[in-house]
Amino acid sequence: MPWLLRDGDVLATAEIAADRRSRRRGLLGRDGIDGALVLRPCRHVHTVGMRFRIDVALVAQDGEVLKTSSLRPWRLAPIARGCSWVVEAQFGAFERWSLKPGDVLEVKE
Predict the structure, then answer these.
(1) How many domains does the chain have?
(2) What's the whole-model pTM score?
(3) Which domain holds residue 100?
């Protein structure tokens, strides 16, 4: 199982959506998520059709968090120039993890 890390500390288990089909589906059809969903590559996400609120981190290729936001269902994430991948998690996860712009993330398998 892959892990989402910040400065070598484990934040959560990570589910990787690496192919087009899994990125397009994302968290649609689910009632929640344990851990995080990493969409790579991905520059922008939405919550159209989602059943629950999520936290979203827009991440640069080097792992730097460019922007974070919380999205209710039927919303669009903000755009961040230089975004290369996205992390999605259950609403409130980023607060528990103290995740903020400027943090550097990595995914380890």
Answers:
(1) 1
(2) 0.94
(3) 3-108
